[in-house]
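Quick review question:
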């Protein structure tokens, strides 16, 4: 069994504090958004989604620009699978971040923020485009939750059964990490 130690001097072995904060904050916001997707919670969902969109953009941009730490504990096929799941998670987040704000705009509806206030952006009503955006948003949201569950299950499996450092890396930042 591998030891649960990360070389703090190897910047390719772990994540930076910024990456860890973005990861956990994004995960928490995504779960809250998913739990509040009913028509009754639309003002909350839209308000939080609009506020979180820059966070999600920062998360996706940062991860694509910095890349991922190497996973020496995994064989090449598992390493590739892990990268594909992470790529799919980020793509789903990006799709949600783009389509979410488009839906009210394309439907000609106001943005209702937490039920506190609303605003409208003048834009022609485009019902067909709105339906496409709604479908893409729903598919990306449900796909994200499936990938999210796989991601969590995999992290817990690595931690409790494989006893490697994969989960620990997302809990303990290293200086100049990815």
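Suggested answer, residue by residue:
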């Amino acid at each position: 069994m591998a030891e649960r130690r990360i070389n703090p001097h190897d910047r390719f072995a772990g994540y930076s504090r910024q990456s860890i904060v973005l990861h956990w904050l994004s995960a928490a916001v995504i779960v809250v958004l998913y739990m509040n997707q009913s028509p009754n919670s639309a003002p909350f969902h839209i308000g939080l989604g609009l506020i979180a969109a820059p966070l999600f953009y920062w998360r996706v941009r940062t991860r694509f620009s910095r890349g991922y730490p190497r996973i020496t504990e995994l064989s090449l096929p598992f390493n590739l699978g892990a990268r594909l799941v992470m790529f799919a998670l980020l793509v789903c987040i990006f799709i949600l971040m783009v389509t979410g704000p488009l839906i009210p705009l394309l439907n000609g509806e106001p943005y209702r923020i937490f039920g506190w206030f609303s605003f409208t952006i003048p834009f022609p009503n485009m019902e067909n485009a709105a339906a496409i955006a709604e479908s893409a948003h729903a598919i990306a949201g449900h796909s994200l939750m499936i990938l999210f569950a796989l991601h969590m299950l995999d992290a817990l499996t690595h931690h409790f059964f494989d006893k490697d450092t994969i989960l620990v890396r997302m809990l303990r930042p290293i200086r100049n990490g990815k």
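Why it works: The chain has a mean pLDDT of 86. The CA atoms of residues 106 and 130 lie 5 Å apart.
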